[in-house]
Amino acid sequence: MLENPPLTNLQTRDIESLVHPYTPIHQLKSTGTVIMGRGKGVYVYDTQGRAYIEGMSGLWCAGLGFGDEEMIEAAIEQMRALPYYHIFGAKSSEPAIELAEKLKEIAPVPISKVFFTSSGSEANDTQVKLAWYMNNAMGRPNKKKIISRIKAYHGVTVMAASLTGLPSNHNGWDLPVDRVLHTDCPHHYRFGIEGESEAEFTARMAKSLRDLIEREGPDTIAAMIAEPVMGAGGVVIPPKGYYEAIQAVLDEHDIMLIADEVITGFGRTGNWWGSQTLNMRPKTISAAKQLTSAYAPLGAVMVPEDVYQAYVDHSATLGTFAHGFTYGGHPLSCALGVKAIEIYQERDIIGHVRKLMPVFEQRMKKISEHPLVGEARYCGLVGAAELVADKSSKRSFDPRNGVGPKTSKLIEENGAILRALGDIIAICPPMIISEAELNELFDRLETGLDQAEAWVSTEALRAA
């Protein structure tokens, strides 16, 4: 099998026409691209006819898989009725109203109003603007800084990318912007001190946050934003008690907690929300991705009544609430959000996730024993395998060796699509996956890991 077979005409057209996100675009003419033609269930099929288990739900988002007929019919029905309208200037549509009401019903904390965006990045960007707007309304013009965390991922717009705590999202982009602070990443495996228990590590994380707040001044900090489980930063799952400890520090200093539920919302962790699984008590919530099972773009910001009343007060002062997006509350997207939530409820998708969780856990534990894997971590139906050069010392590979991307490619050649986050292999299958399909996905993952282990040994990449 050729390492890089000749490009097809469609691949050539693709490379000449598109800018590919999160891709080494300087290599595309030699590596080529994979072009998908169709999908059904948990499988996608490229234009060459090859089938893959989509083990990442696309980008953590296609929870209902591909080609769901109820979702398709809902889209067709809405397109025929009202293919587009906005919610500017006191206009609205039935799908936007119905989806907002459904979100309020299933929210993990009391929610009064929903503001729609087109994506998770826009939702998190809006969270910052709304926090600033609220504090201006409350006569606190200096309370504007936002705390995020190292290795967090909150999107790619200018502010959301600033909140993101990954060097690749800052280097070359003149980011982060002012008013953004980053505290420690709550990953005990990678950042715990030798001999430090998880409880001691959690206490240190809380102290570090407190020190940051007191150093900056609590009167200058509006909010902290956090993913219940950190996604693109490596599927980092905080130790038990972490959010309770963090919440106590935030409450003491009158700093609200924003939950970024873009990945963890709608059943992924075995509850409607990751906040419920991880014992978070957020003030406001961002949602997207599985909100429509990715059948159309949509994001949402969910706020309680007291926060909304601050917006009302400032609107009265300024004359209007001057924020919004052309496609926020798009009737097609909202109709698909309504249908997705109905399907989650009627098919008991959360119950299905919980049924599969022991299988997922068992297979992840087996993955953790692989010679190439330092830690395998998981929560619900999302997990990651961190690849290391030495298991006992946790020593990482030199990033220039590209062990993670190579492993991901080998897994792909075995018919499964997973995602390399550096040298971390993430797994996030559609929530509709069957037990047999889940086991097949892990079988293909294990085969790819074995091949990667052989490649690492051949290339002598374990040398210190």
Would you write up a description of this structure?
- It is a single chain.
- This protein is of the alpha/beta class and 464 residues long.
- The protein has two domains: 34-67 and 348-459, Aspartate Aminotransferase, domain 1, CATH 3.90.1150.10; 69-346, Aspartate Aminotransferase, domain 2 (3-Layer(aba) Sandwich), CATH 3.40.640.
- 41% of the residues lie in helices and 15% in strands.
- It is built from 16 helices and 15 strands.
- It has helices spanning 9-17, 28-31, 57-60, 69-81, 94-106, 120-137, 158-163, 188-191, 198-216, 242-252, 274-278, 305-318, 331-346, 349-368, 403-413, 435-459, and strands at residues 36-40, 43-46, 51-54, 113-117, 145-149, 180-183, 221-226, 256-260, 284-287, 299-303, 373-379, 382-387, 416-417, 419-421, 424-427.
- The strands form three sheets. The chain has a seven-stranded mixed beta sheet, with helices on both faces. A four-stranded mixed beta sheet has the order 1-2-3-13. Strands 11-12-15-14 form a four-stranded antiparallel beta sheet, covered by helices on one side.
- The longest helix is centred in the C-terminal third of the chain and has 25 residues, at 435-459.
- The radius of gyration is 22 Å and the shape is globular.
- It holds the Pfam family Aminotran_3.
- Belongs to the class-III pyridoxal-phosphate-dependent aminotransferase family.
- Keywords: Aminotransferase, Pyridoxal phosphate, Transferase.
- This is Aminotransferase class-III.
